[in-house]
């Protein structure tokens, strides 16, 4: 059994309970191309199971993943997980005040970091984290370089769980070497 299927088995009850709210939040964000319901359920289950005290959401976009992490964090109130969501644009605050106005409580769990994430002082923040979830959903060679050479090494003392979309990896591989069949398999 893979680690992910074990997580799903453990979190099945929570997933059934939360599925309607997860769908409602995704509908409110209104950007299904960037996170499907299935992917959102996986992120939610993994977050509950890993109970991280820090989540790095690399690429806010319209805010699908940040919203799902916030929903999970609201369920993990005893952990007080902090979610840092990164984007060049102030998109989280915009989404929160418009699309997510019926889910304003999600804002209590999310700290948006606006600007180029490759310039963020990850080492400083990661020093104080015990368990970190990283969702790598921003494309490009510079982001990949930051993740691989700064974020992951700075997390070395923490329990790290990272999830990357294949499109983020594909963009990286396209710059570094020709992608192989094996390196690109997996869900989008
Ligand atoms: C695929 S979208 C993220 C989708 C989002 N995770 C979701 O679930 O809806 C990628 C985002 O990463 C942002 N991004 C790309 N490179 C970045 C960088 N160097 N610093 C900050 N944000 C970046 C883009 O502006 C874009 O909004």
Describe the structure.
The chain has 188 residues and is α/β, with parallel strands linked by helices. It has one domain: Rossmann fold. The chain is built from 7 helices and 5 strands. It has helices at residues 3-29, 37-50, 64-75, 91-97, 122-126, 141-154, 166-176, and strands at residues 54-58, 82-87, 110-114, 131-136, 159-164. The protein has a 5-stranded parallel sheet. Strand 2, helix 4 (91-97) and strand 3 (110-114) form a beta-alpha-beta unit. Helix 1 packs across helix 2, helix 1 (3-29) packs across helix 3 (64-75) and helix 2 (37-50) packs parallel to helix 3. 37% of the residues are buried. Mean pLDDT is 87; it is low at 170-188. Residues 31, 34-35, 59-62, 64-65, 86-88, 116-118, 137-140, 142-143 line the site of S-adenosylmethionine (SAM).
List the helices and strands and how they pair.
Layout: H1 3-29, H2 37-50, E1 54-58, H3 64-75, E2 82-87, H4 91-97, E3 110-114, H5 122-126, E4 131-136, H6 141-154, E5 159-164, H7 166-176
Parallel strand pairs: 1-2, 1-4, 2-3, 4-5
The structure holds S-adenosylmethionine.
């Amino acid at each position: 059994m893979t680690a992910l299927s074990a997580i799903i088995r453990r979190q099945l009850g929570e997933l059934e309970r939360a599925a309607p709210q997860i769908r409602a939040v995704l509908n409110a964000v209104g950007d299904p191309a960037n996170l499907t319901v299935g992917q959102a359920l996986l992120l939610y289950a993994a977050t509950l199971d890993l109970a991280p005290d820090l989540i790095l959401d690399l690429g806010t976009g319209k805010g699908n993943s940040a919203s799902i992490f916030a929903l999970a964090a609201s369920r993990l109130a005893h952990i007080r997980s902090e979610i840092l969501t990164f984007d060049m644009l102030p998109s989280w605050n915009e989404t929160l005040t418009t699309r997510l106005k019926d889910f304003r409580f999600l804002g209590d769990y999310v700290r948006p970091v606006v600007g180029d994430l490759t310039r963020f002082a990850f080492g400083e923040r990661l020093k104080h984290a015990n368990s970190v979830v990283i969702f790598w959903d921003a494309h490009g060679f510079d982001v990949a370089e930051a993740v691989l050479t700064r974020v992951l090494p700075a997390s070395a003392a923490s329990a790290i769980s990272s999830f990357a979309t294949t499109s983020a990896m594909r963009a990286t591989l396209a710059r570094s070497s020709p992608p192989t069949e094996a390196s690109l398999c997996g869900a989008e």
